[in-house]
Design the sequence.
């Protein structure tokens, strides 16, 4: 009898196909939801890390040792010597690329109206490794070195009614702690992945911003990208020591993971994501448990008949356990595969949350690209199978202990 | 009748005493007259000066030099000559303040909250620059008494704003009783919170008037910061081109 049990259990699936399909679909939908949610969360996490590295910190960030202490005063005079540091970075075998930036607040004047914006002075040739400008450029071109030109976000262009060729004047505090203004022409409009970059940031050539801010040869910070496999914190220490030895200056050189605010934010977001995931997981589990238990309790009369025909309690338990196992293997398998296909498709086309996220100031892109994670998907499949099988175990064990006469009353 | 005459004599004596010993200038001048005189003496028909603004703060000392032209109560033009700000100009005409920067293709008109910004990172705000020499139009003056300030007898006057368009709701001034120079000023909120303090460190004589040649200004809202404003030269009533205070002139 025992050797026939798997075959019997498998045949039972087709005896009431509609019920089996319903049960499998419930398991399948739960597994699919969990796979897709995990894919989305993975995508958000990777996206946030990429955005932090591309737009804010690089993998290693170099600043003047006192900059952070006075950061709220916008101390541009506490810059770093880009021209002196660049050759040191290029000599380091772990460094892939480096770029200098100057970020500063400015008042943008359009006629008699003004608006507070953030300016970034950048060398667009070295920025290539950090930001895929051609991909995000929607209109016009990138600003050229030596020219008073700028690139703005598409949301800023829309809100301020700016288009290619328009000129605006920026007023700011310089490194000499005086003020200065410059008129810049809009030559490019880009759609940045992060909302805040899109709405209030402009990018201008580094050399013009150095002149404008009275920072000739200096930059506010240097961002570094490392070669694959390089350990950020070790290379950061290496770079710090090399600059110190070569130039005799102390710098604040840190791995992006050691930059308190940004990485902490990412970690907080990660915890928040996993809380959401756990809730979905539990929700999915209750659906699976509920469906499987209902299927068993529905079949009390059948259990009574089988007992009356002489099937032992343990065999009954095994039979229903096997039946649940087969249904969950198929159901969660289908769900996980569909989820992975969905994630793969969405990882190519993305999910556009631009409108929903307008005004939300997070370093996460408004278009999400879910990730396909085979290991996590396999774990979800395994989890769904175990949960479904366990869910059949409890009612089938209880059913196996019921006397045939009593079981036959369940009609 | 005789008794009545005697009582009159009793009253006359203390009155005479009062007239002899009461400071003549105090009894003669009202708070409004002092403020009017102060405004008059601080205003030239035209003037040309050169000087510097030295700001000391947590990051060190910064000096900016300037040439300045003024005309009457409300027109003035400052052109900065120090390297970091060379060519930048501030034009003040009645009720308006314009900034000219050599690299900007348009003039910036400062208004509203923007006027509260610091000028060149100093303790002087643009709003301080726009203050016109018609104090009594905006303030009610009360003479608190006299007080010696650095061995100089001064009127102590409190000005309370009657309009909301002024930079400081309350001003307390120490005004020289002889030459009406403001030796010290404290600028506060209506609730009495001290916002800024000004003190004259040295003076010069020009056009028969005593003018502050070195002033120390401290913005109490900033930590470890104070500014010295120095006049190196002052030419009173020079002949100035009328166009000098026009927007068209600003951009050349």
Sequence:
């Amino acid at each position: 009898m025992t050797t026939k049990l798997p075959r019997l259990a498998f045949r039972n699936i087709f005896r009431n196909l509609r019920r089996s399909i319903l049960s499998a679909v419930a398991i399948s939908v739960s597994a699919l939801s969990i796979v897709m949610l995990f894919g989305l969360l993975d995508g958000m996490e990777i996206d946030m890390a990429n955005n932090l590295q591309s737009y804010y910190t690089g993998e290693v960030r170099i600043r003047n040792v006192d900059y952070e202490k006075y950061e709220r005063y916008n101390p541009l005079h506490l810059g770093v010597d880009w021209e002196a540091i660049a050759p040191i970075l290029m000599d380091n075998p772990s460094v892939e690329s480096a770029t200098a930036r100057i970020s500063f607040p400015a008042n943008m004047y359009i006629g008699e109206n003004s608006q507070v914006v953030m300016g970034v002075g950048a060398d667009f040739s070295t920025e290539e490794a950090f930001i895929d400008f051609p991909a995000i450029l929607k209109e016009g071109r990138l600003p050229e070195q030596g020219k008073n030109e700028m690139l703005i976000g598409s949301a800023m262009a829309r809100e301020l009614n700016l288009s290619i060729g328009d000129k605006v004047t920026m007023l700011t505090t310089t490194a000499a702690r005086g003020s200065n203004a410059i008129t810049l022409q809009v030559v490019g409009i880009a759609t940045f992945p992060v909302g805040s970059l899109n709405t209030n940031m402009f990018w201008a050539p580094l050399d013009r911003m150095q002149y404008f801010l009275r920072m000739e040869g200096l930059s506010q910070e240097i961002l570094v990208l490392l070669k694959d496999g390089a350990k950020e914190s070790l290379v950061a220490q290496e770079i710090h020591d090399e600059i110190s030895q070569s130039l005799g200056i102390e710098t604040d050189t840190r791995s992006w993971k050691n930059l308190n605010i940004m990485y902490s934010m990412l970690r907080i977001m990660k915890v928040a994501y996993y809380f959401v995931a756990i809730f979905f997981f539990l929700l999915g589990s209750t659906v699976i448990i509920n469906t499987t238990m209902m299927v068993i309790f529905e079949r009390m009369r059948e259990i009574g008949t089988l007992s009356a025909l002489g099937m032992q309690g343990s065999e009954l338990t095994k039979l229903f356990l096997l039946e649940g196992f087969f249904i969950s293997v198929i159901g969660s398998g289908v769900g996980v595969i569909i989820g992975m296909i969905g994630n793969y498709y969405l990882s190519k086309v993305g999910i556009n949350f631009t409108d929903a996220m307008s005004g939300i100031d997070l370093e996460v892109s408004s278009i999400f690209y879910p990730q396909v994670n085979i290991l996590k998907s396999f774990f979800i499949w395994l989890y769904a199978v175990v949960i479904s099988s366990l869910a059949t175990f409890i009612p089938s064990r209880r059913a196996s202990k019921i006397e045939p006469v009593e079981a036959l009353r369940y009609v | 009748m005789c008794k009545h005459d005697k009582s009159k004599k009793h009253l006359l004596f203390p009155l005479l005493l009062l007239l002899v010993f009461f400071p003549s200038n105090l009894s003669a001048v009202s708070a409004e007259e002092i403020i009017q005189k102060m405004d008059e003496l601080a205003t030239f028909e035209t003037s040309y000066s050169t000087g510097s603004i030295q700001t000391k703060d947590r990051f060190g000392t910064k000096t900016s030099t300037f040439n300045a032209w003024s005309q009457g109560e409300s027109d003035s033009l400052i052109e900065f000559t120090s390297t970091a700000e060379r060519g930048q100009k501030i034009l003040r005409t009645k009720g308006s303040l314009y900034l000219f920067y050599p690299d900007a293709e348009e003039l910036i008109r400062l208004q509203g909250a923007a006027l509260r910004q610091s000028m060149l990172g100093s303790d002087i705000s643009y709003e301080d620059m726009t203050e016109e020499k018609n104090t009594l139009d905006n303030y009610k003056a009360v003479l608190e008494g006299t007080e010696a300030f650095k061995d100089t007898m001064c009127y102590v006057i409190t000005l309370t704003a009657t309009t909301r368009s002024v930079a400081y709701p309350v001003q307390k001034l120490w005004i020289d009783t002889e030459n009406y120079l403001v030796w010290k000023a404290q600028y506060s909120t209506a609730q009495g919170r001290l916002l800024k303090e000004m003190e004259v460190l040295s003076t010069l004589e020009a056009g028969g008037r005593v003018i502050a040649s070195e002033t120390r200004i401290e913005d109490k809202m900033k930590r470890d910061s104070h500014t010295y404003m120095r006049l190196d030269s002052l030419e009173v009533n020079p002949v100035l081109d009328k166009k000098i205070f026009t927007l068209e002139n600003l951009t050349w």
Summary: Chain A touches chain B through 23 residues (CB under 8 Å). The CA atoms of residues 288 and 388 of chain A lie 6 Å apart. The two ends of chain A are 27 Å apart (CA to CA). Chain A has a mean pLDDT of 86.
